[in-house]
Amino acid sequence: MRKAFVTGITGLLGANVVLKLLQDGYFVIALVRKKIGYLGEENKNLMLVEGDLFSDVSGYLTDVEYVIHIAAETRQNLLSYADYKKINYDAAIHLFSQSVAANVKRFLFVSTANTLGFGSLRNLGSENVRQKYPFTHSFYAKSKLKAENFLLKNNKTTEVIILNPTFMIGAYDFKPSSGKIIFWVWKKKLVFYPKGGKSFVHVEDVSNGILKALQTGKNGEKYILTNENLKYRDFFKKVNKVANQKPLMIPIPDFLLAILGFSGDLLRSFKIKTNLSSVNMKALQIDNFYSNKKSIAELKIEYQPIEKAIEDAICFFEKQNQAEK
């Protein structure tokens, strides 16, 4: 039985990846802080190992062919680059070093598309475009890119594949994480939206892409995993259609986002944690669009409509609400 070691399984993507691995016949060893934190189903082919990202897991990597490193620091309110570098770079290198020592065949690093250059609908960003502002000033994106660069320079014995997903939507978003964007619109009578846009993708498609990369991905390559490039207004319209609702849609002027960003910068100068910053607010104003041509051509991914991802996310949240009552 093929063995895979996975981190970050309590998050949206990790939970979906574990499910796909088990369905595909893998034996999965998963690193978790506390076993109670895993909310998925038990399985005889799933071993939960308690520890943090700096734990010595070398004993669990024996006979493991693949390591899939998903865990990351993604919060947007941390104040220093060091807060992100510790988890997104130092911990990644720690796990990679143990993987190399254990003769792991392949190390898959789940990064972000924002380490690459975005584009417009006419000229989409791709794996060959260099990172652009505002993400060159994003502590999160910078720390991820630093890890990518190290891993790709040290892929001689253990092969390295970088996966760069865009904004993921779907089921098993327990926290929730990126699914919070659904709550921005769902059951609202007024919806305020920025003028920019994002690349959206069903988390199931990202999970499938990761499994395909285990077998057919090329050593030393990056793969953007994405599907639909949408303005926020158009994405929210899709949420409204799936949820059968008709709220009033109101655009947020760019100057107001700029003021909010400046206010966040000021708060951060006083060591006050906030999601507001000039970098984060600028990201809402741009068309942050990417191409999926490489992942379709080389990984043979068949992407689902984003409406399906929205529907799956809403159904999951409804079930969670019912379970809590």
TrEMBL record:
Q: Which domain of life is it from?
A: Bacteria
Residue span(s) of domain NAD-dependent epimerase/dehydratase? 5-223
- One Pfam family name is Epimerase
Q: What is this protein called?
A: NAD-dependent epimerase/dehydratase family protein
Species name for this entry? Chryseobacterium zhengzhouense
